[in-house]
Amino acid sequence: MARRYAKALLSLGEEENRLDALTREVRSLGDAVAASEELRSVLASPVIPQEARAAVMRELAKRLALSPSVRDAALLLTDRRRGASIPEVATALEALVDERSGKVKAEVTSAAPLTDAQALRVQSALERLTGRKISLSRKVDAALIGGVVARVGDRVFDGTVRTRLEQLRAAALAS
Predict the structure, then answer these.
(1) What is the pLDDT of residues 76-98, one digit of tens each?
(2) What are residue 32's phi and psi, to 5 degrees?
(3) Between vectors from CA 78 to CA 55 and to CA 27, what angle results, nearest 5°?
(4) Do 160 and 146 form a contact (C-beta atoms < 8 A)?
(5) Is the CB of residue 29 less than 8 Å from the CB of residue 74?
(6) Mind listing the pLDDT tens digit for each residue in 4-59?
């Protein structure tokens, strides 16, 4: 369902020649909806009258300064009691935009937060390894001890100290 609405928004953004701005607006709206359990409940509730749900969405659109096209799409989703799924629509839209531009999402997990310079080096290395443009998201997991794990699609690049230590232990036990 989210992908279907995302495709419509992608077409709209291309038609209006403002795909990047539209994607940012939809992400902003998705983040706002995701941040509030109460808002998601209101948007999805069959008990709350449609006009009240629409009024809530209009107010949110006003506060976020959404363009008329994004506001209207949000109102359509609200009308169909799918307003709570706006975060999924935003994620699907971003994936479609990345796919269209040849970008691939990569999730990099490190033992400590990466600096911007380190993240740029990791991104460059992943772009060389995959031959594609990389859109990087970062996570921290202290259990890694050191190094990074990068997931690009279904490929995993593991350069962590924990994995290397496990490999050494396995080799020592095997001999």
Answers:
(1) 999 988 889 999 999 999 989 98
(2) -65, -45
(3) 100
(4) yes
(5) yes
(6) 999 999 999 999 999 999 999 999 999 999 999 999 999 888 899 999 999 999 99
Q: Is the pTM of this model over 0.70?
A: no
Query: Please, which residues bridge with residue 103 across strands?
Result: 133
**Element housing 150 (H / E):** strand 147-152
Provide the token pair at 5: 């609405």
At 97, list the tokens: 């935009």
Angle between helices 19-35 and 68-79 in degrees, nearest 10? 40
* Cα distance between residue 79 and residue 132, in whole Å: 39
Judged by DSSP in three states, 81 sits in coil
What proportion of the chain, given as a percentage, has pLDDT over 70? 100
